[in-house]
Amino acid sequence: METKIIQNAVSPLLLDYMRLQAENSDKWNFKYPLGKTPFHLKHAKLEIKGDKVFDDFLFGIAQSILICLYEKEQKVFYPDPIIFC
Length: 85
Fold this sequence. Notes:
Blueprint: H1 12-23, E1 28-32, E2 43-46, E3 48-49, E4 52-53, H2 56-72, H3 80-83
Antiparallel strand pairs: 1-2, 3-4
């Protein structure tokens, strides 16, 4: 699968808010990428086991970001599972 960069699709305020919430949550971690990567380059990962999500609030914010990406570039993915869940 090819990686596509979508510029200016999501408000920086929404991204900053999500990062702040993830940093203060015990259900998200910043382990990746592994190694001696500086913290500001780490990726937030939501803990999901099977089909159970452990932080509904942040999961909802993540869904909002995916919808913003879809609005900007509709060829990236099909959002029905997000919109109708």
